[in-house]
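pinned: reference chain
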Amino acid sequence: MGVVTVGTAGGPSQQSSYPAKISFPGTPLPGCDLPRAVGVNLAGQIAAGVPLLALIGRDFLASAVLVYNGPSGMFSLSL
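pinned: its structure tokens
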């Protein structure tokens, strides 16, 4: 769809943007269509021993409720 400038820890970076659909297989959460998502290279990025597939930003979370329990390492997400 185009190119956008994003702020990163290493400074500004140009990234492509795409229409996208997010789904949550194995959960009761409904999928959602995003008119524009910014691409990012997550190769080699691992959290809790699992490779990262996506970063969810405030634009997506603005329509959701996210509760993170740091001491237990658990979270809940409601759309």
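why pinned: The CA atoms of residues 21 and 40 lie 15 Å apart. The radius of gyration is 14 Å.
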